[in-house]
């Protein structure tokens, strides 16, 4: 599943309720900016509870509406700072409607064939990349790194060092993938 073209594709597998994903996110956002035009990023919400995972459904609906940039950080904040449980359909729909997205517009996308199809395909995507937890980064369809992998290999002194090391490994893998483009 190697990406084609001049840019290196980076796929981030994440989950909104995951504390490690939440902690990694600000550094990952900075890393994306530092990489500039040499990468393209695709996010995939890991379907933690299976083929109807509510958080994955939320992410795919926001993606269909073009609202990920507007809502992504707000969702992490709602879950990890405000302690709002967005793990049930009703709670998600209510929260989204209270945070600037028209309920009817959201529900149309939420119930759409396209979003439903993508939701059902998530298990195949995670299996194809061999992903069984999040966060994880796939570089150019060929390389995988994650805080869990980096932590077992390098034993960084704290979380900040672990995340820095993970993104350094990601940079090295992007460099390696870019050489073959």
Overview of the molecule:
With 181 residues, the chain is of the alpha+beta class. 58% of the residues lie in helices and 12% in strands. The chain has helices spanning 19-35, 54-65, 68-80, 89-97, 103-110, 113-129, 147-154, 159-179; strands spanning 8-14, 39-45, 136-139, 143-145. Strand 3 (136-139) and strand 4 (143-145) form a beta hairpin.
Task: Please tell me the overall pLDDT.
Answer: 93
Helix amount, in percent?
A: 55-70%
Mind describing the biggest β-sheet? 4 strands, mixed
* Coarse shape: globular
Enumerate the strands of the largest sheet in spatial order, edge to edge or round the barrel: 2-1-3-4
How many helices? The count is: 8
Low-confidence stretches: none
Q: Beta-strand level of the residues, as a percent range? A: 5-15%
**Main structural class:** alpha+beta
How far apart, in Å, are the first and last alpha carbons? 15 Å
Give the SSE order as H and E letters. EHEHHHHHEEHH
The Rg value, from CA coordinates, equals 17 Å
Q: How many strand elements? A: 4
Any chance you could write out the topology, listing elements then pairs?
Blueprint: E1 8-14, H1 19-35, E2 39-45, H2 54-65, H3 68-80, H4 89-97, H5 103-110, H6 113-129, E3 136-139, E4 143-145, H7 147-154, H8 159-179
Parallel strand pairs: 1-2
Antiparallel strand pairs: 1-3, 3-4
Helix pairs in contact: 1-8, 2-5, 2-6, 7-8
Quick take:
The chain is 58% helix and 12% strand. The protein has 181 residues and is an alpha+beta fold.
């Amino acid at each position: 599943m190697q990406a084609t073209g001049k840019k290196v594709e980076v796929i981030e597998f994440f989950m909104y309720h995951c504390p490690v994903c939440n902690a990694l996110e600000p550094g990952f956002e900075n890393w994306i900016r530092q990489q500039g035009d040499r990468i393209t990023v695709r996010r995939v919400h890991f379907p933690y509870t299976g083929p109807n995972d509510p958080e994955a459904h939320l992410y795919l609906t926001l993606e269909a509406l073009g609202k990920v940039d507007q809502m992504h950080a707000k969702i992490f904040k709602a879950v990890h700072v405000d302690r709002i449980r967005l793990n049930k359909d009703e709670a998600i729909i209510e929260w989204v409607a209270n945070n600037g997205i028209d309920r009817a517009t959201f529900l149309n996308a939420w119930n759409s064939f396209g979003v439903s199809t993508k939701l059902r395909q998530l298990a195949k995507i995670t299996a194809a990349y061999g992903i069984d937890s999040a966060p994880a980064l796939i570089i150019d369809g060929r390389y995988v790194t994650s805080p869990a992998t980096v932590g077992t290999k390098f034993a960084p002194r704290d979380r900040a060092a672990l995340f820095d090391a993970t993104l350094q490994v990601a940079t090295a893998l992007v460099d390696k993938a870019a050489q073959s483009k």
